[in-house]
Amino acid sequence: MADVRSISSSIVQAANHSASSRLATTQHEDDTISFFIDCNNAGASFTHAVADGVTISDIIKPVYVPTIIHSFFPLNGLANFEGTRNPVLGIQVTDLADGIFIGCTINHVVVDGTSFWHFLNSWSEISKGSIHLSKPPVFQRWFPDDTDIPIRIPRSAVKLKQSNEELESILPGLKERVFHFSKENIAKLKAKANTEMGTNISSLQALLSHIWRSVIRNKRFDPNEETTYRVVVGVRPRLPELPDNYFGNAILGVLVTMKAKELLEQGTGNAAWTMNRKIATLTEESSKMFFESWTASPKFVTMSTFRSNGLTTSSSPRFNMYEEGSIDIEVCLFPETMEALAIDEEFMDVVT
């Protein structure tokens, strides 16, 4: 049985004013709308649940992520814009037959992955008795020069119903599986990629390129068809105005494009090098140019934004939450591709 009182007490201390608030909107006369965080101290959601007869093995042993997992996360299934009438942070403690499962959900409008893990680490420090946080969150916002605030979004661009329908039509058909890559296997893959190209490609870029090639190989694409990989990149290191402990969103997507034939025939090293060069174009100047352009003409990512011939990695595997340099990646694919991937020797040789 979980010590619910202790857990809930530490959450109260850890949940800052952004995480314990609500999203709010302002309607403007020019048929635009603005979103903002209403720091009204409305509170986070805390749930204590019981999963009768469910063991830890029932969760971690199956090949595919069991569907019961989704019930362990509060606010599951809500879209970001629904934070106007729901908490932006939800914590659920579920008692299992032989342990507990703590599920955390936070609205992506409020934070990115870096801030999410900042929150979890702060919560951990408080739970261990710390009075002062080692890295207090910074809430000071930054905007490009000459930005009109608040940012006004045309109502026609906010296709809320359509976004939900797109999501609901795609997700039920996907299989989810977590693949574990050890530090040693990642090092071998990185060395292979760098030997092929005579460069210094990062471990993550080598691993993502390996996954990209493996998925496209098993989807049996037309050799001349273009395939893409969208990598979500943190821009805190690229913007001097933002400290490491900035609490909010500071990410941009980079789209890497290669023809299927080039991707498969020229090796992991070439794919990783192509990805490396594309990410390198995301500089301080280009990041600021994007934000200036976006604030002037906001555009939104919906399911239709993602191509059937491409992959996307979010919730970066680089976050420091894995042991000794290993990485876990949850892969979501249609069943036939997932099954082919599982018997692909070249791919599985790197899986631990």
TrEMBL record:
<dbReference type="InterPro" id="IPR023213">
    <property type="entry name" value="CAT-like_dom_sf"/>
</dbReference>
<protein>
    <recommendedName>
        <fullName>HXXXD-type acyl-transferase family protein</fullName>
    </recommendedName>
</protein>
<dbReference type="Pfam" id="PF02458">
    <property type="entry name" value="Transferase"/>
</dbReference>
<dbReference type="GO" id="GO:0016740">
    <property type="term" value="F:transferase activity"/>
</dbReference>
<dbReference type="InterPro" id="IPR051283">
    <property type="entry name" value="Sec_Metabolite_Acyltrans"/>
</dbReference>
<keyword id="KW-0808">Transferase</keyword>
